[in-house]
Amino acid sequence: MKTELFVGNEWIAADSGETFEVVNPATEEVIAQVAKGGEADIDAAVAAARSCFDSEEWRKMSGRKRGKLLAKAADILQSRLGEFAELESIHNGKTLFEAKIEVFMSVSTLRYYAGWADKIEGKTIPVEGPFFVSTRREPIGVVGAIVPWNFPLNLASWKYAPALAAGCTVVLKPASETPLTALLFGEVIAEAGFPPGAFNVVSGGGSTAGMALVRHPGVDKIAFTGSTEVGRLIMQEAAKSNKRVSLELGGKSPNIVFADADIDAAVRGALTGIFYGKGEVCAAGSRLLVEESVREEVVDKLAARAAKLIPGDPLEKGTRMGALVSKSQRDSVLEYIARGKKEGARLVAGGNPVAVNGKGYFLEATVFDDVTPEMTISREEIFGPVLSVLSFEGEEGAVELANETLYGLAAGIWTSDIAKAHRVADRVKAGTVWINAYNYYDTAAPFGGFKASGFGRELGGEALDAFLETKTVWVNLG
Length: 478
Hints:
Shape: globular
Oligomer: single chain
Number of domains: 2
CATH topology of the largest domain: Aldehyde Dehydrogenase, Chain A, domain 1
Helix content: 25-40%
Number of strands: 24
CATH architecture of the largest domain: 3-Layer(aba) Sandwich
CATH superfamily of the largest domain: Aldehyde Dehydrogenase, Chain A, domain 1
């Protein structure tokens, strides 16, 4: 595949001529040398995006035509689903099964916003006086999209699909660990017939290419998914030029199990909540809050099932746990595990690094019991397959413990009492709450966080708001 930058529907080398390595975390092998974009390359990509945005072709293109282009891109991506899924697995470490789900969700996102493109409407407003007042919804301009490495293709689609549907143009900066599917998607864009500059990809470092995109005066809006710390830096830089910003940041999500829940279903939900995607999921249910009377039963079942989640070759059928994305990420997770032990949490499953065929950044599914709210593993986002079990007494105790975090991205509630479920859902401070379920998504359902988990919403019709401006038009009828 091409590993140069995708700018103006062409493949170009980085201005510096430099490249960087992309590594398969399951084998530790270098799989590609990718163009290392910098400030000059961001300049070129933004110029291409601006030229397209200002062009007569793009400006006069109807929403229906934009929708047809997005729908065609969805068809092309679906026809290449196996190719994209294998590439996603190879450079992220996730299982091929999970990678196929991710590509399918990206197809779904493209199709959903293809349907929205010709439904962006204003309204008329009755006012005093002899006036006719109406509003228009207009594209915000050039969008800088910066995405992380955990769901490289899917999280990118959450940004570029609504942006293109709204009539914006896009410069995408993928994570340096996982740039390959973003670059390959350039082929899909070109084949679908998007004009040059509508969609561009610049691979490179976050502190170089990423921050150059944030600081660029030709960028009107930044859409970012990543850590809370980096999100705060982006806000500071974007404020200098009054850029619009939307942020989907970290989480330390509570998954609450009441004593009256279907315990087996709750255990299955807890396992999915933390071990899907190796725990490298912003909405992972990393804090399992269990009512004390059933805590021992829940922990025993969790430990037994976690022990069966054997890490293995991500491309082999039947593998349930792939490799963490990089050595540095696995090292970081192992440090948290060591800290959990030191601070007094009881390790009941996993906790050890694993090699597959002598290679790879694998880690056992890990469960800690006897965790207290002040422990590091209970407070900080680990971003790995590590579950912390905390206990509570009663409904009030569950709500207090659930909200005892800086974050507010997601939460789960397991109970057979639907009235209690709704009471708790009302009081938990989180952007998404699942009841008797966890980790379900749909392109029609908005997703985003409260508190330190960011602001703005992705998916659903609400996502379009991030890429549109409202213009009010007054006509004197007197």
